[in-house]
Amino acid sequence: MVKKRIVSIFEYLFFLAIGVALLWLSFRKLDMHEIWIDIQEAEYSWLVIALFFAILSHIIRALRWNLLINSLGYKTRLSSTFFAVMIGYLANTAVPRMGEFVRCGVLSKKEKIPFNSLFGTVISERLFDMISLLVIIFLVIVFQMELVGDLLERLFGPILESVFSNVWSITFFLVGTLVFLLLLIWIVWKSKEWVKSLSFYQKLYDFLIGLWEGIISIGKMRQKGLFLLYTVAIWSFYGIMVYMPVLMLSETSHLTFIDGLTILAIGSLGIVAPVPGGIGAYHFIVKAILVELYNIDPNAAGSFAAITHAGQTLLNVVIGGLSYLGMGILSRKQEPKNE
Predict the structure, then answer these.
(1) Which of 34, 99, 103, 225 could cysteine-pair with 84, CB 3.0–4.6 Å?
(2) Has residue 31 been placed in a domain?
């Protein structure tokens, strides 16, 4: 247990160091005085509007999550799911990808819903979010084919060239991995009676069954149209949330809503990177998009990345902290109801 905790701490410090390194790379050649002037003179009313739409998107995410939970036969209130979602974002600020586990754990404890079922619904949710992001990336490529194509070629051309030059090594690795997995499945299948006799088998089986039920909860959902409407609303608000801040600075104010979607699509890679709160990775990617795609002054691009990341982080910390208090104070315990 102690060894595992030590490994987790070193892993966290490793990714934090990567984030700090990327942050340093993003700002090392910039004029910090100019950035400070931008931060002082930015029109923050646009950032406030953006954060308002961010909160709306989180509320709708909670409503959408309720649809999946209700399809499993449990009744949850919007307040509880919203608090859980925001506590999850707060957790992500500190530990990458921990938010999904935390929000399920918080709601499971409060509403007495099995954790594995809740986590299954989150997997289902994230699958649709991934599809939505792919659709946005497709639209961005269609509307800005030349700009995005040149950027992708510069960024990933050397990587793809390396991949194709080592195609046999990669093929050997993939085939070897597939053979290993098939062999492992065959061994488990042959030893199934022995596996069933293990003390933890039933607990693991029950957990996986609950997880699977959560994943397929969207198939049981009665209001599929409403689920899709919520999904469209969430990502529309994300687009507005990213576009509004470009109006803060004179150097970026000429960018269009499609440009904002481009920042959202590619900049999302910085948020999902395994560094605490996307620090460094977000700044590096967003700055690269603004400079390489739109020829924005590097100082202004750095200012934009710094302000937007700070605003989103502050929102997650403040609303997440209040949600933690709200979950304990305002949301009373409720026994699950089966339909």
Answers:
(1) 103
(2) yes
